[in-house]
Amino acid sequence: MIVKKYKNLQLDFDRQIVEQMAKIAIHHYPNEYGGFLLGYYSNDFTRLHIKGFLLVDKYVSSPVAFRRELNIKIHNFEKIFQETGLYYIGEWHSHPNASAWYSLTDLQAMNNIVSCNTVQLHNPVLLILSISSNKLLDFNFFVFDEDRLVVYE
Ligand SMILES: [Zn+2]
Question: Which residues does the UniProt record annotate as the domain JAB (predicted)?
């Protein structure tokens, strides 16, 4: 298990989950691809456990952009929570042949998620995977906090 920190917040995940996402993203190379992150918080909300991910089927993508349909179907997440105990906690997508750092568009997308009043998610996580045509090069987890994206170290 890998643990990363930002201020008093911790995030943990198995590298295997990241590798699985990368494998799927590589299938979509050279276009970007991504989806949702699932997980749960500790009782005091200081630790986030990332436990799974979902793919999206409605999206627009190119080598430099990935935009899913913005209308999140809340009922699906309720069902997922009932079945697995996992919540929608953020987003992930690939950056083919580019850095694992967020773009201005990515920042705006996270801002939209927080502003969206159907989603009660104040500090969504963003995972960016830097990939080549055949492997995962790098990745970063960011948390949206006070209108900024900050990286978990
Ligand atoms: Zn991006």
Answer: 16-130
